[in-house]
Amino acid sequence: LTHLEPRQITRKIIEFIGLDDQPFSVVEDAGFRRLLTHLEPRYMLRGRKYFADVALPELHQTVYSFIEGLLKESVSSSVSFTSDIWSSDVSPVSMLSLTAHWMYLNVSLVT
């Protein structure tokens, strides 16, 4: 295994929280803390407030800037949107998805 920088580990943790719809409190769970201590004992795991107030806004800005850059380099000046609302039989929560479509420099569709 290679040594990971603390910023890389923090980034992967916030990605895990977002991608797997985990609560910020997962970073304070005993099993999660033990796993990280086993994998990288030198990593100082921060609390949920840090991930909510610092790590998530940083990731949001990174993703926002990336998408903004793609849109600025697009072939066309227009973006089309599609939306869908759905719910699950096993969950009382309804979901709304919004997808953007545009043409990129190499004339490929970006979704």
UniProtKB/TrEMBL annotation:
Q: Which gene encodes it?
A: ZBED4
Xref: InterPro entries: Zinc_finger_BED
* Protein name from the UniProt record: Zinc finger, BED domain containing 4
